[in-house]
């Protein structure tokens, strides 16, 4: 039943994206027909297609991330299910209800985080890339004394959408390596990352 509801949500999201894209194309067409172009702060004419290109770049990046997540998540479930359960038993959850977070939960959380960050700039696309190994190391040294780390705190350190994407992949890879687990205390509450090993 939950899978059906998740698919409905995904279909609604895709429909919303299609409507937004169609509206953007119509707005671009109308702007192209206006004889007087708009100018940016530097006095250069603004190409109305630039906004659409930005949206397509962001969609392409997020699509690649979710595809990678889905592949790795299925690989983890099929090949390491027993080991995953054994590792999970080592997490101290006494007195606290913890709900295991699934791929759809993670995707929704990171999508909301990306929506709060401005669009990807030309400078951001050409800056020095963020290394996945560096982000994984940063996550592993960010836990408190109890071996927990909140998603909100982790994402507050991200400066742009590219860093959020790398953080997303780092979280998934650490789950695959059985170094962390992700839980949620209550429905709609912040996610918690639990460390399964010290380093």
Automatic annotation (TrEMBL):
InterPro entries: ScpA, ScpA-like_C
Pfam families reported for this sequence: SMC_ScpA
Name of the protein: Segregation and condensation protein A
Organism: marine metagenome
């Amino acid at each position: 039943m939950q899978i059906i509801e998740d698919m409905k949500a995904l279909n609604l999201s895709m429909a919303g994206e299609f409507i937004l894209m169609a509206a953007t194309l119509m707005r671009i067409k109308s702007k192209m027909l206006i004889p007087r172009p708009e100018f940016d702060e530097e006095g250069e004419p603004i190409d109305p297609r630039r906004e659409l290109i930005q949206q397509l770049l962001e969609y392409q990046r997020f699509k690649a991330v979710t595809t990678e997540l889905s592949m790795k998540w299925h690989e983890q479930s099929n090949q390491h299910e027993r080991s995953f359960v054994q590792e999970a038993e080592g997490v101290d959850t006494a007195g606290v209800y913890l709900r295991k977070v699934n791929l759809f939960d993670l995707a929704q959380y990171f999508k909301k985080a990306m929506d709060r960050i401005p669009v990807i700039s030309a400078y951001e696309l050409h800056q020095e890339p963020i290394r996945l190994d560096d982000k994984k190391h940063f996550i592993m040294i960010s836990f408190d004394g109890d071996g927990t780390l909140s998603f909100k705190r982790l994402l507050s350190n991200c400066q742009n959408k590219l860093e959020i994407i790398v953080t997303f992949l780092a979280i998934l890879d650490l789950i695959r390596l059985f170094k962390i687990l992700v839980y949620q205390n209550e429905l709609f509450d912040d996610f918690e990352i639990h460390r399964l090993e010290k380093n």
